[in-house]
Known about the structure:
The chain is of the alpha/beta class. The protein has helices at 36-44, 69-82, 95-106, 126-139, 144-156, 159-162, 165-178, 183-193, 222-231, 247-250, 252-266; strands at 2-6, 9-16, 21-25, 48-52, 88-93, 111-117, 209-214, 236-240. Helices cover 45% and strands 18% of the residues.
Amino acid sequence: MAYFQSRGMNLHYETVGSGPAVLMIHGFTNHGMVWAQQIADLLHAGYRVVMPDLAGHGLSQIADRKTTVDDLATDMVALLDHLAIDKAVVCGLSLGGMVAQYMATDHSARVRALVVANSCVDSTAPDVVAANQSWIEMFERPNGPLLRMQAIWPQMLNERYRASPTADAFRASWERINGKIPGSSFANVARGLQAFKSRDRLNGVNVPCLVIAGEFDRLFPPAVCGEIATLIAGARLSVIEGAGHLSSLDSPKQFNELLLQFLHDIA
């Protein structure tokens, strides 16, 4: 297992392959290996795949204080420094997409191109803050991370995937990992999410950008996710038919085709 240091924390990552780097940033309460279904296609296409566990997630050190999206973006720059990667294609989903946006706006010299999936430009709206607060309250109950997983599982992935043996295996793995993480760690990241707002920053992004939405994403529907594309000059928006919020997981073939075509186009 590989670790790097950022903000005084010990953070976990995995990297495979060689060639131009693609930094893959997972979503809230998930972990780096959620990108397992993307690895083979990216390796075959000649890319180096870098998959961190965000602070407070996976095998990284727990978040013992409020952790903002700015903090997480700082961590990702520290990871690139640690790996001596000058620039990377940055691909993030949901919370990872928020981190990717801040990397492109505040650390633009490190971003070769941007892929934002199933994300948004604003977590400060009252309804989003209310939902976030309900997550915090759930995390702080006994077995909070597992309780939240049980509550959100049907909302995160399409029905076809949830009925598959692959989904059963992934859910069991996810539960084993999150069962070892204190709810306070996720609660502290959720508190930091409440300040996220990229709308006024994105007009300065001048790298190629692909925005991916899921047709049936309940958390960030295509109209919400698509706002990112309207704010970045030249960005393209693609909606995956039938996909839920974790589109890279429940619709990997379509997700990978979009990602690889984008990488081909910017090469």
